[in-house]
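Exam revision sheet. Question 4 asks you to relate a sequence to its structure. Input first:
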Amino acid sequence: MTIARATTSQRSFLGHSYSLVGVVAALVILAWTLVAILAPYVIPHSIGDIVDDDYFGPMRQGLWLGSDYLGRDMLSRVLMGARYTVGISLAAVSIACFSGVVLGMIAAVTGGWLDTCLSRFLDAMNSIPSKLFGLVVVAAVGSIPVLILTLAVIYIPGAYRFARALAVNINTMDFITVARVRGESTAYLIGSEILPNIIRPVLADFGLRFVFIVLLLSGLSFLGLGLQPPLADWGALVRENIGGLPFAAPAVIVPSLAIASLTISVNLLIDNLPQKIRDRDA
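Answer key, C-alpha cells:
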C-alpha cells in the first residue's frame, strides 16, 4: 500500500511520472545553475590571487580543490568557470534555438521560394565543419559576444531543420486548414496553432543542443580560443593545468569532472523526461 501511494503521488505531480535518475540529473543541473548565478558571492578567493606557494597543490583545508599551476585556488576558479561555461552556453543555445525554431516555422507555413532558399542556405551552413568554423571566427575576432554568436550560428541550421520537420507535419493537419479558411494570418498560425504543438520536443532539443555547445565551447577553450586569462571556463582550466595530469592533480581532474557531470546530467534528464513531454506524438 505504501509503494502504491508513493507511485501514485509521483505520477500525480504535474500529471507526469518521473524516474529517480531524471530527478537526480535535474538536481545536478539545478546545483550548477545556482553555482553559476552565485559564484561571485561565494568564491573564497579572487580568481587571480596566488594563495599557495606550491603549484598543483593537493586538496587540504583552505584549498578544498587544491591549487593550479600558479598556486591559485581551484575551488574559486571552478566555481567562476561554471558561471562562464553555463552562461555562455545558455546564451548561445537560446539564440540558436529561438532563431532556428522561428525560421523553421516560417518556412513550413509559408513554403514556396522562401522555404527553398532558407533550407538550401542553412544546409550549406550545416556542411561547414563546426570546429573549423569556430576556430577561424574566434581566432580572427576573439571576444565573449563574438564567441556566443559563433556558437549560436553553428547550431542554428540543426535547430531550423528540427523545427521545420515538426512544423511541416502540424501544417498538414485539419485544424490548420480550418484556420486558413477563417483567414488567419501567418503570425497567428505560427504563434497560436503550430508553436503550442511542437514546444515540448523543441524544449528537449534545446537541452541536447546545450550539451553540444558546452562540449564545443570546452573544446575551443582547450585549444586556447575561448576565454582569455585570467578568465577561464572549464575547458580553459583543463588546458592550463594539463601539466598536472601525470601527478593526478585536482586542478586538471576537477574541471573535467565538472564538464562530465553537467553534460551527462542534461542527457540523463532528457532521456528520462516523461513521454508526453519528450515525444510529439504522445
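Marking note for examiners. DSSP finds eleven helices and no strands in the chain.
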